[in-house]
Amino acid sequence: MRSFELKTSAFAFHDISAQVKLAVRESGVKEGICVVYCPHTTAAITINENADPDVQRDLKLALIDAFGDSDRPEFRHFEGNSHAHLKSSLIGASETIPIANGSLMLGTWQGVYFCEFDGPRNRKFYVQVLEGRD
Ligand code: ZN
């Protein structure tokens, strides 16, 4: 398993596709699956469009519409960052991507993103590559 470190911005989608591709290449696995996992409760991993940065901007706006960017008065979590925990649970802590012929089967417009909802922070993510059959 490969681990990577990342310095994040306040509320941002960081493109980690290059690191994930590197981990797959270094594994030598030609057919299998790749799991990208984030061990944090106010961050997440997602796959989305990597061509138009306005997609990330719009996703950010929609998440703020849904959960706000600060806590509602009725929230009880002592840290005051429940809005970030909610976004993390909605998006999810991991993505699984098939590997064929040594490459991730990402679509032309897909990138892998580390989603920060409570930064800036020093974060980690893991890439586990598992060999399978073709
Ligand atoms: Zn918290």
Q: Could you characterize what this model shows?
A:
The chain has three helices and eight strands; from the N terminus they run ββαββααββββ. The chain starts with a strand and ends with a strand. Strand 5 and strand 6 form a beta hairpin. It has a single domain (2-131), classed as Jelly Rolls (Sandwich), CATH 2.60.120.460. The strands form two sheets. It has a five-stranded antiparallel β-sheet with strand order 1-8-3-5-6, covered by helices on one side. Strands 2-7-4 form a three-stranded antiparallel β-sheet, with helices on both faces. It is 26% helix and 37% strand. With 134 residues, it is of the alpha+beta class. It has helices at residues 17-27, 54-67, 82-91, and strands at residues 2-7, 12-15, 32-37, 43-49, 94-100, 103-104, 110-116, 122-131. It binds zinc ion. Residues 77, 79, 81, 85 line the site of zinc ion.
Rg result:
16 Å
Q: Can you tell me the residue ranges where pLDDT is under 50 for at least 5 consecutive residues?
A: none
This entry's quaternary arrangement is single chain
Extended strand count: 8
CATH superfamily: YjbQ-like
The largest β sheet comes out as: 5 strands, antiparallel
| Beta-strand proportion | 35-45%
Strand order of the largest sheet: 1-8-3-5-6
Count structural domains. Answer: 1
Structural class: alpha+beta
- Bound ligand species: zinc ion
Please tell me what the overall shape is.
Answer: elongated
Average pLDDT, to the nearest integer? 96
What proportion of the residues is helical, as a percent range?
25-40%
Termini separation (Å)? Answer: 21 Å
**CATH top level?**
Mainly Beta
Please, how many helices? 3
- SSE succession: EEHEEHHEEEE
